[in-house]
Amino acid sequence: MAKYLTAALLLAIGIALSGFFISQGFVLGKAADRTVTVKGLAERVVKADEGIWRIYFTYASDELTELYQGVATSQQAIRDFLLKGGFAATEITDQPVSVNDNQGNYYSSNENAKRFSAEGGVTVRTENVDQVNAAVQQTGQLVQQGVLIRQSDVLFNFTQLNDIKPDMLNEATANATEAATTFAQNSQSQLGQILTANQGLFTISDATSGATHGADMMKKVRVVTTVQYYLQ
């Protein structure tokens, strides 16, 4: 009889303890549900550290020999212009030249056009962005020399993102913490530990136009972090 009483007593104690732990599990689970998710923003305006300038030209002639000579003359004129502007020879490269036989183009309706036309270009890539910005303003000198400029594209890049990443992430996280603290105070809670954190992507755009790839020397670097905190 005593044996059965002991077993029943142990069973009752086990049930009671399991009920206690289960109830505590619900309490802890409920506490874990008390969280707040906030976003932290960090922005900086920085100056580009790389400039890429592509100058495209055209030349037309009825004779291939003259065409090739005209293309070479145009390329050299652009290179001399860039060298005079202070760019190093190692920063300048010629683009491939394409030649079109206009008489072989059955869709062409301009009978007065030269038989052959060529398109080429010269690219300068440099860290001296101010030099690029100044030289672009003097492109008219090439036109005065007889170079037919078809297109002139300037692109400025910021390549030193890794140098500012840590500070910007700290700033974004601090902003997120400030927002979460304000929320906790308004909800009569205390801010707990971080549950999850998402760094987010860094974006670089023109400071004025917002274009992702543009001709603005000043760039806006932006990152948004998402942080989830416990509330106590």
Walkthrough of the structure:
The chain has 3 domains: 1-33; 35-48 and 158-232, Translation Initiation Factor IF3, CATH 3.30.110.170; 50-157, Protein of unknown function (DUF541), domain 2 (Alpha-Beta Plaits, 2-Layer Sandwich). It has 5 helices and 8 strands; from the N terminus they run H-E-E-H-E-E-H-H-E-H-E-E-E. The chain has helices at residues 2-33, 64-84, 129-136, 140-144, 161-186, and strands at 35-47, 50-61, 92-101, 116-126, 148-157, 191-198, 203-206, 218-231. Strands 1, 6, 7 and 8 form a 4-stranded antiparallel β-sheet that branches. A 4-stranded antiparallel β-sheet has the order 3-4-2-5. It is elongated.
How many DSSP helices?
5
Give the total of domains.
Answer: 3
Oligomeric form: single chain
What string gives the helices and strands in order? Answer: HEEHEEHHEHEEE
Q: How much β-strand is present in the residues? A: 35-45%
Poorly predicted regions are: 7-31
Task: Classify the secondary structure makeup into a structural class.
Answer: alpha+beta
Gap between N and C termini, in Å?
50 Å
CATH class division of the largest domain = Alpha Beta
Please, what is the average pLDDT?
85
The percent of residues in helical segments reads 25-40%
**Gyration radius, rounded:** 34 Å
Q: What is the CATH topology descriptor of the largest domain? A: Alpha-Beta Plaits
Count of beta strands: 8
Shape: elongated
Going by CATH, the homologous superfamily of the largest domain would be Protein of unknown function (DUF541), domain 2
Question: Main sheet, how many strands, which sense, barrel?
Answer: 4 strands, antiparallel
Query: Architecture of the largest domain, CATH level 2?
Result: 2-Layer Sandwich
